[in-house]
Amino acid sequence: MDCAGGHLRGSCSGPATLRCGACGAIRYCSRKHQKAHWDEHALVCSRMAHQMQLAPVLYDFPFAYTHHTTRLIETQETSLCLLLESWDVHGEGLWAASCGCFQLATSQRSRGKDVDWRLPTDFCPCKAPEGSPAQHLQSWEEYYNWRGISFESPAALILTWPLSLYHAVCLAQSQTICSRPRETLLIHYLGPEKELEQLPAFVELLALLPAVEIHIDFVGPAVSKSADRETHTFSAFAHCSDLECACKKKGMDSNPKGLVTTRLWRGFYHDRHAELGRNPDLIFAANAGIAAFPSWHPTLELIVSLNVPALFTDYCEEAAVLATETIHHVIRGKHPDLEFPVQVNPFRQPLSPTNKDLDLPTFSNAFVFGIHGPSNARMSQETLPNPP
Questions:
Q1: Three-class SS of 146-158
Q2: pTM of the shown model
Q3: Same domain for 42 and 171?
Q4: Judging by beta carbons within 10 Å of its beta carbon (0-12, 13-18, 19+), is residue 259 exposed, middle or buried?
Q5: Distance CA 113, CA 276 (A)
Q6: Are residues 147 and 28 in the same domain?
Q7: Which of helix, strand or coil describes residue 220?
């Protein structure tokens, strides 16, 4: 972790091992750099101290592997690659893009119709569930129990993408999801990266939101030139590794009801929006980094003009707070408050990344927040189970 004051007083004297005694969230190489940085850090120190208090909540996962591996990954005593190897999925199937070790051929990128979980049947959602959730699922424990998945399974590392989107849909309570069968839900998904290699996992939305045809436009610079405008339709769950599983047997009721159609767009949302067709029912961006990238400014101005709910996730609470400040600055006078305040995402990825800038609790999709157009009617309370 870099010294937070290194940019103020020349080169650092050594590794950043000295923590701020008040918040414990940032590190320094020396007392000299800590003192030099205090005027800047003092503005956020108490806020970060409060955010550090959420650590017990954020590190609380039901999975058998997260108690020790999350901390070991943070300290680089183990790695995601070693974990994937222990599950025999390193570089395989849906996991090919998980660690960055493997680059897929351009002709294979983003298609993935035939990729599978490479996990046993009780480790992944390879078949249709017996019924839809009775209410809005609000934790990994509820989801795994409902799907009958073992808590030894690492599937949540990939399922964080579709389930974070599901959670956003439930928070938004979109009127496009109604009691009529075969209703369509249109989502604009901004800034995808690893998700582009794991598109078949989004079929899980059909188990969570049954009898709904879901169309997702993935828009972002990470879409390759060759994949621009590609469309893919998914109507079956990704298979498990068990040869005798019902997910591989024809005639078995193992497929979901409905379709997930994806379309890929290369570039920024504000540049490509006019080509996408009608306005979406929901805008979503995972690990958005709104405060870090100025390219969000024209996108935010466009989003607020569309009068649709827009929800975002980010890695830590401080990033989410800075994002909300950026949103208020960019759309000042056009929107009074956040419709969806910063809150913990129950479907955050259960392993902490190694390249953290702060010692704050940090996970992919850790926090969720969002805005709604100023003049649009509020979401119907009858279409989906109530959010927490």
A1: HHCCCCCCCCHHH
A2: 0.90
A3: no
A4: middle
A5: 23
A6: no
A7: strand
